[in-house]
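Bench log, entry 3. Co-assembly request; chain sequences pasted below exactly as received.
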Amino acid sequence: MASLTDNGALSPMVRKLAAWAALSPEDERAILELPYTVRSFSPGGYIVRDGDKPQNSCVLLSGFAYRHKIVGDGGRQILSIHMKGDLVDLHNSLLHTADHNVQALSQVELACIPHEAVKELAFARPTVGVAMWYDTLVDASIHREWIANVGRRDGRTRTAHLLCEFGVRLETAGLGSTREYDMPMTQEQLSDCTGLTPVHMSRSLKALESEGLVRRTKRAVSIDDWGRLAEAGDFRPDYLHVTMPGIPLL
Amino acid sequence: MASLTDNGALSPMVRKLAAWAALSPEDERAILELPYTVRSFSPGGYIVRDGDKPQNSCVLLSGFAYRHKIVGDGGRQILSIHMKGDLVDLHNSLLHTADHNVQALSQVELACIPHEAVKELAFARPTVGVAMWYDTLVDASIHREWIANVGRRDGRTRTAHLLCEFGVRLETAGLGSTREYDMPMTQEQLSDCTGLTPVHMSRSLKALESEGLVRRTKRAVSIDDWGRLAEAGDFRPDYLHVTMPGIPLL
DNA sequence: CCGCCTCTTTGACTTATGTTACGGTGCAAG
DNA sequence: CTTGCACCGTAACATAAGTCAAAGAGGCGG
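Structure output for the full assembly:
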């Protein structure tokens, strides 16, 4: 458990929630004073497994994680990607039993908060509670966009859309910009986000590159003309419910 | 606005929330005493449009509704189906601006509650608040399953899965059973749930029927062997987070 | 520096699903 | 009774995406 002296390990959580509601200084302090333990994971490590009954709600302090399900024939579908500040596991802990897996994508540091403490705080301080609720609602909104992405767009459009989403979210998290960002995912993982095969993901990326819409070096993505990529990806950021001055609307 | 004398128009909402948390009699009364107005819609009527700033959170009193998005090329993706007791619009009203459409599927009666009243109740009575939060989390869980369904299962499996989900949800809502239920959707609408074309939905349904997994007459569905249909649909109901004795686990 | 990973690219081929089109059925309105 | 409309079925054909396989391209440990 943390003492006040380690001074703000939970500040990424404050930053995230402050985007959703106007937190008072006391609200912020109450968040920072939540009890937690820090755990770290190597790439591929399981944070939660389908069927677990997690006792903690986890905040990502650094690194990336992803949620996924395995379907009957062994296929994997990635459901969402999480980054610094994200409340990775409010869903599973509040629902009592996990309905999907959460796995580390990179080296990950996690703050684990007993979910009873989270619930207490939510109802003791309505503003914080609204912010947390709002956060889970935004997650759901992203899920809806993914349903549409996977269900009704072709491969090239889907991957462009995904790259746009990453750009905006990384920028709002302070980890990059819509012009350039790092995203440590393999093409296989990207393909599992979009319901494609790895081969087809490779083809789609190649198509986007040869049209000059993105450049990639290793795991870094550069976007020279955001407008064209957003158009190719049928991307409008409304569903992310962020309003930051820096984000181009199209 | 309602007076106490119209006696329990919001009871479907009580029934729904009572499934998620142990409501006290006072909790139930507080819900029933929420202010509301009733509106009705004909099939196809818009309850909320993408971009609206709804002031109300709506409860479905009767009939069916669906949420959907229109993508760039005009394609439609249905995101979820709603039935009696569902809080159709907590998401959109709490997020301030709607990121998708909600439309009536059949004749619909709706109770519209000012969302400020909902929020106040949620924080005045934590048990009710938890139940509402939980409800939105279950919605998100269903969204995740749909991502996997659309992304990683073939047409026949997808449609079997959808038919299973309807069975379980209608049974828990008291509107049918996993052996037989009514669902007033056209094949075009079913295809928009699954990311298929209407033609292929027709093929998939035909396949399931010719294997003896379902029978359909008009808009009614009969399932003789739940186990076989669930297997064909790769369906396990965990993600619905219902625990009713009547629901076969496989 | 070598060898062994994992990841990516590419090609040839297959297949599930999309497209277009037309005919049938049932229901509702006049 | 007719007409029209919305939905459904189905056939022939087109194509996006999947599959299988093999060969580069890094990166990393020994």
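The first strand of chain A starts at residue 37 and ends at 41. Residues 1-5 of chain A have pLDDT under 50 and may be disordered.
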